[in-house]
Design brief:
Blueprint lengths: L4 H13 L4 H7 L4 H13 L3 E4 L3 E4 L4 H11 L2 H4 L5 E2 L5 H11 L3 E5 L5 E6 H9 L9 H4 L1 E2 L12 H11 L3 E9 L5 E10 H14 L1
Parallel strand pairs: 3-4
Antiparallel strand pairs: 1-2, 4-5, 5-6, 7-8
The protein binds adenosine-5'-diphosphate (ADP).
The site of adenosine-5'-diphosphate has 16 residues, from strand 5, helix 7 and strand 7.
């Protein structure tokens, strides 16, 4: 987000002369304090200035880039994730396509007993199967899915930035959000508890822009 010329000037004054009161800044700009209040509030909310009671404003020493960076590393996947849409390994491709349309998602997670992750099926996997001339009413998604341990995952505690970087690096659209769990047979695995996709990233991006 860009600062207005007046906000830049205020920032410069506080950098050079802080701590400095709002009255003094207004005086320096030949404006009244009420006119300046929205600018001072915004600069404080953005974290560029700090308001100390009875002392005045001081420059926080943080750049806008540093503040945006910090915010992106603060937000956790668990705060923005969506509900996972899951199917069983023996679900046929035709039904998987119908599920994608009904649930309005681009990625299905394939789970076994106890909701443990077995694989991922994307739009392109289903299109490929359709082009292959198979009987889509018979072909199970288990045959075409990307299977564990080749599935990239995330956890509710991971930062949105780290998860987004994994999506970009591995060129996938979504990651299952998982937690370690034990299946009914006693074997360890990863239970699917959420879905983190490019849509969640886009939504957060818009929200952060609106709030600033
Ligand atoms: P689309 O098929 O719509 O382009 P993706 O880019 O997500 O969607 O999928 C590309 C390939 O990557 C597919 O073969 C899919 O099975 C696989 N894939 C999707 N998500 C993951 C994931 N989280 N981990 C590993 N592979 C994935």
């Amino acid at each position: 987000m860009e600062l207005t010329p007046r906000q830049e000037i205020i920032l410069g004054i506080v950098k050079r002369e802080g701590p400095i009161t709002g009255d003094r800044i207004a005086e320096r700009l030949s404006l009244n304090k009420a006119t300046l209040r929205p600018d001072l509030t915004l600069l404080t909310m953005m974290g560029l200035l700090e308001a100390r009671p009875r002392v005045g404003y001081i420059y926080s020493g943080k750049s806008l880039d540093q503040l945006i960076n910090r915010r992106l590393h603060q937000v956790r996947v668990g705060e923005v994730q969506s509900v996972p849409v899951v199917v069983a390994e023996n679900t046929v491709v035709y039904d998987a396509v119908v599920t994608m349309f009904l649930e309005d998602v681009g990625t299905l997670f394939v789970v076994g007993q106890g909701g443990l992750l077995e694989g991922v099926v994307s739009r392109k996997d289903l299109l490929k199967a359709a082009l292959g001339g198979h009987d889509l009413h018979r072909l199970p998604v288990g045959v075409i899915m990307t299977r564990m341990p080749n599935v990239f995952t995330t956890t509710p505690e991971e930062s949105v930035w780290a998860a987004a970087k994994r999506i970009v690096t591995h060129e996938v659209d979504a990651l299952p959000v998982v937690q370690p769990a034990t299946g009914p047979d006693g074997a360890g695995g990863l239970k699917v508890t959420g879905r983190f996709s490019k849509t969640n990233i886009a939504r957060l991006f818009v929200e952060l822009g609106e709030r600033a």
